[in-house]
Design a protein that fits this description.
This protein has a 4-stranded mixed sheet with strand order 1-3-4-2, with helices on both faces. The protein is mostly helical and 369 residues long. It has helices at 10-19, 24-34, 44-52, 59-69, 73-76, 100-124, 144-154, 165-171, 208-224, 231-246, 249-255, 262-272, 276-285, 291-303, 321-332, 337-343, 348-355, and strands at residues 90-94, 175-179, 186-191, 199-203. The protein has a domain at 1-79: lambda repressor-like DNA-binding domains (434 Repressor (Amino-terminal Domain)), CATH 1.10.260. It is elongated, with a radius of gyration of 23 Å.
Length: 369
Amino acid sequence: MVAEDSRAEPAMLALVRESRSMTQADVAAAMAAASGDMGTAVSQGYVSKAESGRLAVSGERLELYAAALSCPPDLLCLDPQVHGVGVGLIHHRKRASLPVGVLRRIHAQLALTRIQLNGLHSAAAEESVQADFPQVELSDLITPKDAARTVRKRWGLPAGPVSDVVGAAEEAGALIVLRDLESDRLDAVSQWAVGQAPLFLVNRRAPGDRCRFSVAHEIGHLVLHREPGSGPEQEKQADAFASEFLMPASDIRKEFADGVDIAKLASLKRGWRVSMSALLRRALALNAITDWQYRTVIIEMSALGYRTAEPVHVPLEEPCRVPMLVDRLLEERTFTTEQAASHAHLLPGDFMRLYREGNRLLSVNPPRR
């Protein structure tokens, strides 16, 4: 329940709408439909004025707005900049072809996930884990590869494959949530705002090996990039970090000492749990194989269809911190589903869908591609 004098925050109205892949006209139509026998007429202009702050949304209109957006009315009354979203730099591992509208939806979902987790942490009255992501300043002498070695040493990771990339990032204080991001063109998105834990949304549609690389890529962004910069250059730096983090040069050179073929790549994928293509590119970059060897194997992989669907399944690494938090609230502290959902500013059904059940689509409505 919200107070009678509660008013919606214009920025939150837009944020929730974008997270639902809805246009202003969609919201207007949904409000009209939700009014039922009342026959309330709502125009796109009304929604536009509400989002721009030119009119107040309160009382019955607030309830109607919340019904149209499938969320609790109190969520719409929160100021995104005050209730945990912050303005931290957002990073993503995405394809250039990702539509702008899809990116805006995922950014909005990242912001709402932050609000949900802040609410759950507040309900649990737990102290937040101090994030241990060292900041590395790149220079002519310090490279992304140096930064990756620094992080591996700082986190106490032994030589060889990283056994659990997600677990290592969580141990360092990150919050990681696996979600269906409803697009195959973005693998992960992260944000680290001042005073908050680093937050990662990882696309569970991606294969396990790609998810591992994507998480390592996002770790690289958080270590290397606290200020905006050249997008393509920062992406290359994050990729270089991830490659050294997951496939240290000294180890990979040894793996290719006696050459390379498809069978060897498949075997290495089982051990290192990164894609065969990533291993092959890494070996070439380190001069562990020749250009001729690289081209020969690439041609064979293409002929076998491995450029689009590789053999050897790598399981997804499941995060633990957020599920454990929810378990403590529901089982140890005996919160009801309704109470936990209220703290997360979610409807009970959406709380169960996102935090307790297998179907974890972030959008209530089908996405617009």
